[in-house]
Amino acid sequence: MTSSNSYSSIINSSDSIILTLWKFTPLFVGVSILILVFKKIVTRGKTSTFFAYQPTPFNEQVVNEIKSRVGDFQPPWWYNNVLCSIFHFGKLLELKFDRQVFTDSENHVAFAVDWYPSRPSADMKDLKICLYFPGLAQTSDHKNNQIFADYMSKRGYYVGIVIPRGLFVPYKSAKLWYPGRHDDGKVVIRDIEQLYPNSKIFLVGLSAGTNLVYRILSESDKSKQIVAALSICVNHRYEDSRTRLESSASGKILSYCIVELNKYMINANQHIHESIGYHRIKQINSCYQQSEFDRVTYKLLGFDSEKDFLAALTSSADHPNINVPMLAIQPVDDPLHAGGHRENIDIDGFYRNPHTIFMEPSHGNHFGFVEGGLLDAVFGESDQCYRYPAQVAEVFFEAVTQRIT
Q1: Is 368:335 a contact under the CB 8 Å cutoff?
Q2: Which run of H or of E encompasses 217?
Q3: Cβ-based burial of 352 (10 A; exposed 0-12, middle 13-18, buried ≥19)
Q4: Are the CB atoms for 331 and 361 separated by under 8 Å?
């Protein structure tokens, strides 16, 4: 496996995905607007945060510091959990990422890591590296990811956003990305071990990226340089949550949007359509629900059965094997859980494993921790929006660092 720098992007994923959603989801937009109009407006006085953990001294310290230094997430008056989960508000920050492209000619794999403020230097001491695994079809061109990178870089971290295969760097083969394929993350970690043997690695996963973090943490041969992890918007039981989501009209709309993002990642790489098979591509583009998409693609992803594929996306089995500090943030009003996050997430597992903490803010939806005034958040270049997960990460990672030094 080799790596090289490249600053060219073959696609603008952010603009293309937004255009795709606007073109194919007018029903979703209409329903979301109705929800915004008729749903009761949240108020600051109704916020709260629940924690689940073993009461070890370290866990108690982390929870108390988050409560005192960060507090509850306070949604603005214009907050709506559905709209804020789908649409990204505000102009992108003017951040210049340092792109590192990993290529493996033998296995026909290529992907990018976007570093901010730059790639670390090998001669740096006390190096803190934050590897960030974004959500489905997300890249460094999404404002919530930019805010996290900018915020943490100002606290001394070098943030590497691990871009899903097929985005920014074209697929080299039909070895497609999916939320259970953590090979790319392991490659980056091995590269860090070789170049920066004295660094500390902090993992962060968002949405689909949390499954990758869980997989990396649960393996017995994981890097000893990994000292902590943060998971934002988690899901332990993929099949159950998918069924619950698609059981309602609004959930079907959200499932449809997820399918469109999955299609986008394949259709943006038309050069691999022949190897996938045009008949299979036609089947993929005929899917309208995530359950349909999974049934069509599991063999393409290398699984003998759909059951095996679903098991690969069920991270509850990985939870007992985590032996470094990990904090999971899951808002109550995340629409992708359709009101059943306590059923989709093994809360008891956080009580059983002394290394893990579950944090449940009452608001935040699906990575949409929006803040600030409406006009500034929607049209401005403010860096005040989407800060809450980074503020929690700062406190948590600081506590871990103090503990091990």
Answers
A1: no
A2: helix 208-218
A3: exposed
A4: yes
Q: Any long-range contacts for 307-312 (C-beta under 8 Å, 24+ apart)?
A: 309/180, 310/238, 310/239, 312/180
Residue 335 tokens read as 């629409």
Quote the pLDDT of residue 41.
47
CA distance 89 to 341: 25
- Angle in degrees, CA 384, 387, 392, rounded to 5: 150
Token pair, residue 176, equals: 């497609």
pLDDT digits (tens, 9 = 90+) for 77-127: 888 888 888 877 778 888 999 999 998 877 788 999 999 999 998 888 889
User: pLDDT by residue (tens digit) across 234-284?
Assistant: 988 999 999 999 999 989 999 999 999 999 999 999 999 999 999 999 999
What pLDDT score was predicted for residue 357? 98
User: From edge to edge, which strands make up the β-sheet containing 128-133?
Assistant: 2-5, 98-104, 109-116, 157-162, 128-133, 200-206, 226-232, 326-329, 356-361, 49-53
Query: How far is residue 260 CA from its own chain's centroid?
Result: 17
Structural domains in the chain, sorted by start: 2-404 (3.40.50.1820)
Q: What is the pTM of this model?
A: 0.89
